[in-house]
Q: What sequence folds into this?
């Protein structure tokens, strides 16, 4: 197990966390760790809460880590490749088991590497994805939904495919790897990755002793239930201690008892596998954040409705940072600041008084879809919004100048302004989706 920092180190890190979140409207608690293997074998870990919380999770509590689960899938795939159990250019037709019932000519031209790097051309979610319980969106996903959609999609030609983030790809991947190995995904991941790294508190698709989450507006929300087979898209739960062990292993501090296939996979998974875009390239489930004049940062973030997580690694400097939070909204900038003190921090999303002149300037109609209009209006010095066919709701303002709701729908609205300051449109964020809407004159 990793050793952790003394009280003074923890106090300094707690102060940095608090400087980012104090007063945040989510009432979030954040746990964080910093690793600097060139300087010390000790992990600096700490926690802080935005407001007084009698229910603050103890240091070492378990959190949803969302899409950081995809990085574990990438390491597992690399480990299986190191054993010769699969190949990175293996086609999807070879990975699919006969019980999926798909004819080969109904399966798109996709390889394992395409899925691992979000370059398959698949959309974010399969056709027909309509959760029975919107606050628990993956609870009812099934093999017919995941694989049946393959026959319904028409992909662009391979040369025209670009990086486009796809949860669907990783919903498939965890199941495909498990089918190839002949055992459930949770058992396979525990046997090949978690247990050899000493990560005994990391669970797949189980909510045992899980910290309760909240939306970015502070309203409590249930944890996500993800079927074990498809948990690679975002179904892992972990602790700051276990995530520190994973980070150390990715940085090269691997237990001597780890099998050679895992040691090779930890190195392979962080290497560039595909080009991405101007900001990132892609490894095996990892993103490689480009930096001018420096090696890229290896990272993955994760977010559910009630939790946010970030793991970022500077391989060359053997440094890493982790943040785990019991609220949505994202705190990636904090992990980057812990890794590199020159990275700016975003302002906490503190409640603020409504800027009435701006609110009046924003009043108008915005087109979210062809037949779906959002109308914003000011009434009795309060700002309201109403979507086509829905009830009106109040919008509050935070310190970033963004608008949010206080109900369980957890909507965030960010205005888009032109050079002269005129409001030209907005982006509505809800449930992980970002919907741009131009203003209608």
A:
């Amino acid at each position: 197990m990793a050793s952790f920092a003394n009280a003074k180190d923890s106090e300094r890190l707690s102060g940095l966390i608090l400087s980012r979140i104090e007063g945040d409207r989510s009432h979030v608690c954040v746990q964080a760790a910093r690793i600097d293997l060139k300087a010390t074998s000790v992990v600096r870990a700490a926690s802080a809460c935005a407001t007084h919380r009698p229910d603050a999770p103890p240091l070492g509590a378990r959190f949803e880590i969302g899409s950081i689960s995809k990085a574990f899938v990438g390491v597992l795939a690399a480990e299986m490749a190191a054993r010769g159990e699969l190949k990175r250019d293996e086609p999807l037709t070879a990975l699919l088991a006969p019980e999926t019932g798909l004819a080969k000519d109904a399966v798109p031209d996709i390889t394992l590497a395409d899925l691992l790097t979000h370059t398959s051309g698949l959309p974010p979610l399969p056709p027909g994805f309509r959760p029975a319980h919107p606050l628990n969106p993956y609870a009812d996903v099934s093999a017919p939904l995941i694989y049946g959609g393959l026959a319904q999609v028409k992909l662009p030609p391979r040369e025209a495919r670009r990086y486009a983030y796809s949860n669907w790809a990783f919903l498939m991947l965890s199941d495909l790897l498990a089918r190839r190995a002949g055992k459930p995904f949770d058992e396979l991941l525990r046997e090949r990755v978690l247990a050899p790294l000493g990560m005994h508190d990391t669970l797949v698709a189980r909510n045992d002793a899980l910290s309760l989450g909240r939306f970015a507006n502070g309203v409590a929300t249930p944890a996500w239930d993800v079927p074990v087979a498809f948990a690679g898209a975002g179904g892992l739960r972990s602790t700051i201690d276990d995530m520190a062990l994973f980070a150390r292993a990715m940085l090269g501090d691997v237990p001597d008892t780890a099998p050679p296939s895992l040691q090779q996979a930890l190195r392979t998974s962080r290497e560039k596998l595909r080009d991405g875009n101007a900001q990132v390239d892609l490894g095996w489930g990892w993103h490689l954040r480009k930096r001018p004049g420096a090696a890229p940062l290896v990272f993955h973030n994760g977010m559910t409705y009630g939790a946010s997580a970030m793991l970022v690694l500077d391989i060359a400097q053997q440094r890493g940072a982790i943040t785990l939070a019991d609220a949505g909204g994202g705190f990636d900038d904090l992990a980057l600041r812990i890794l590199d003190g020159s990275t700016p921090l975003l302002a906490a999303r503190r409640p603020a008084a409504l800027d009435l002149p701006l609110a009046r300037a924003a009043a108008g109609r915005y087109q979210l879809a062809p037949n779906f209009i959002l109308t914003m209006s000011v009434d009795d010095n309060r700002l309201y919004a109403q979507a086509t066919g829905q009830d009106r709701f109040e919008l509050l303002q935070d310190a970033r100048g963004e608008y949010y709701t206080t109900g369980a729908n957890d909507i965030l609205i960010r205005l888009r302004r032109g050079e002269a300051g005129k409001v030209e449109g907005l982006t509505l964020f809800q449930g992980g989706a970002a919907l741009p809407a131009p203003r209608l004159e």
